[in-house]
Design a protein that fits this description.
Number of strands of chain A: 26
Strand order of the largest sheet of chain A: 14-2-1-18-26
Number of domains of chain B: 2
Number of domains of chain A: 3
Oligomer: heterodimer
Distance between the termini of chain B: 19 Å
Shape of chain B: globular
Shape of chain A: globular
Largest sheet of chain B: none
Strand content of chain A: 15-25%
CATH architecture of the largest domain in chain B: Orthogonal Bundle
Bound molecules: flavin-adenine dinucleotide
CATH class of the largest domain in chain A: Alpha Beta
Helix content of chain B: 40-55%
Order of helices and strands of chain B: HHHHHHHH
CATH class of the largest domain in chain B: Mainly Alpha
Number of strands of chain B: 0
Distance between the termini of chain A: 54 Å
CATH superfamily of the largest domain in chain B: Cytochrome c-like domain
Amino acid sequence: MKNKLSRRHFLSLVGAAGGSSAVYNTSLALGLMQESGPVAQLDLKHIGRRKKKVAVLGAGIAGLTVAYELERAGYDVTVIEASHRIGGRNMTVRHGDIIDEMGYKQVCNFDDDPEMYFNCGPARIPGHHRRVLHYCKTLRVPLQIKANFSRPAYRHDPERFEGKPVTVARYTSDSRGFIAELLHKAADQNAFEKPLSTDDQERIREYARGFGDLNLQGRYKGSERGGRKSGGFVTPAKIHEPLDIQSLLDSDFWMGDGAFNSENADWGEPLMEIKGGNDGIIKAFVREIKSPIIVNAPVQSIELRDDGVDIAYNRKGKRKTISADFVFNSIPTHFMSGIPNNLPDDYRAGLAALTPGNFFKIGFQMKERFWEKEGIYGGITTTNQRINQIWYPSHGIHSQKGVVLGAYTFYDESEFFEKMTPDERLKYAADCGDKIHPEYSRNIEAGVSVPWGRISHMMGCGTSWGSGRSWEGGDEELREKYYKLLQQPAGGRHYMIGDQISYHSSWQEGAFGSAEVALLDLDSRVRAESGESRKG
Amino acid sequence: MFLAFAVFSWASVFAEDDLPVPAEELVFCTVCHGVQLMGNSIIKAPRLSGMETWYVERQLKNFKNVVRGRHAEDPFGYEMQPMAESLSDEQVAEAAVFANATRSPAPPATVIGDIEKGKAHYSACAACHGVDGTGNEALGSPDLTIPNDWYLVTQLMNFKSGARGSHPSDTYGMQMRASAQLLADDDAIMNVVAYINTLQNK
Ligand SMILES: Cc1cc2nc3c(=O)[nH]c(=O)nc-3n(C[C@H](O)[C@H](O)[C@H](O)COP(=O)(O)OP(=O)(O)OC[C@H]3O[C@@H](n4cnc5c(N)ncnc54)[C@H](O)[C@@H]3O)c2cc1C
């Protein structure tokens, strides 16, 4: 039981959004894809007066990218979006915004203040997500550094250390001290499969001393790295006694020690976020795109014909149809089984093989930034209570109020929260917070909960092949069978896009990447029609 | 037990332009139950196209009053239950009329079983659900040819185990619960559903 719990938490902590990067694609058959360094030049052929019609289904990151690029290349674009809002899973809520949870519509009750916002979806952008950053730069979307990892934040296990939170600094430092001692001893005894030279033995001992801050004898006696107990500036420094090793080993963070979080490929410090809320990229797209984006218009059917494709959608109580030459479809694949279409059977089987995940977040507006009094400025506390995490804002330091993330969960924990009413969720998360910060719940002024598995027109985040967690990569056989098929246009006209068609589901980079693949394919076809070919 | 992927074949019914359009407050029903409430096997929300108004209304009220859908062993009922909570009585009535008006092709058969054996079992069902499976309003028993076959399987299992039909106010559910005991095991359930698949509309 104990071990099972640890593993679950390890996965949720290390995995969180998009750990599927662990299976980074080495075999992308598309020779044009450049997956690192500067972003590939799309260089779409401008089709001039031979205008072609394109329907884009869904106005999330993938759909908006396609609309933006094709409009600039002369295509006649229409975007059809089911929801009342544009942005899809890229959603930031502020005062008065609707959270369209089916069955429990919520209205965000934060103060009417632009600094009081909550990123319900994307929150982190690492420097190697070249496509995200390319569009932020091109569209002049300002970024700032977001602290993801914080040493003064906490690890909290209600069953260890008397249920008191332990700072990340102390927890990490003591864990490393312990491991470093073992390594030092192994080097002393030359206890390796192949004995080391005396020089190499000493090199390893030195590394171990550096790694764990051991004394010259290779013993760990506590370290300033764990934070000082007192003093250090005008009085002598006192350091903490090392934590009890057995309790460290028993605690759920042993495996999932937050120390490793920032070593996850997509969480490497420093991370970034968009100033004023991560929907800044959506606002920029909306500002730039002149083509119609029709909201409140759920797609009703997709019919491929020899010479085009017909899309039916509902709008203001009426059923409408548009005909296009090409369609770019970012509708979550799990809805495609409920939308009539004549896509080829194997293609539909591929869509049906993708399973949605169910990320869940809570945001609280706090009337005072009490965490700053504890020396915490941004970053994450992890707990093995069901809320998993508490995030502190990186913006608005020393202002009066702030919005804290009060829960971020996946799979079983998300289901646990989904079954509650919104009020019950907030109450539950507030109680968890009190176990970590004594001032937590009395500072809560307002709160929202966002169960992505219950949000209308979304019902999920983090697709995987077959069943299982998105960051575990899913069933490789299913991916093998269908992934490349879904990257190809059905009937030469229907492109499936979205982070769901990538190796980075639940990361915007995957959504941008899927759009890029589809656009490059379309461009090759359009050029081929006029006897050209793509360079590159 | 089930065919791997149930996929719908294109049917001209979707091209008709007089198909009913849901009122704004009922659009979310189609998010799970699909366009024209055609059903979605991934979300496990059954087909409701053309379902009897009286039966839909009764189920929505049961969900709303927590007579159905809050049993610990009824995960899919649990998905649906909160969806009815926020509906007013007028919206319940409106939803039932909408469901009845929707049109979609018969769902594909995905359940495999022994049709002959199923036919024998079905003789016990016909008294209430009719020889052709289309139900009997006077007895309160619904048309079994409307929902997807995988849904009929979960319902029969739920009735048998008591996950559905054991709430003291669920008069109709209790009748069906008693009848489900006639099906000895999972095989019997698969067989009878395989037979229902051969009945009209399917
Ligand atoms: C909790 C959470 C945390 C995340 N954290 C990060 C992060 O830190 N960094 C990061 O980069 N990414 C993160 N992501 C992932 C990021 O949000 C997604 O990768 C990205 O927004 C997906 O864009 P998309 O265009 O592929 O799909 P979506 O945004 O899902 O777009 C699909 C669109 O289709 C619409 N639609 C649905 N049905 C229909 C229909 N019938 N007709 C018409 N339209 C329809 C939907 O309303 C939606 O607008 C996170 C996501 C979540 C939920």
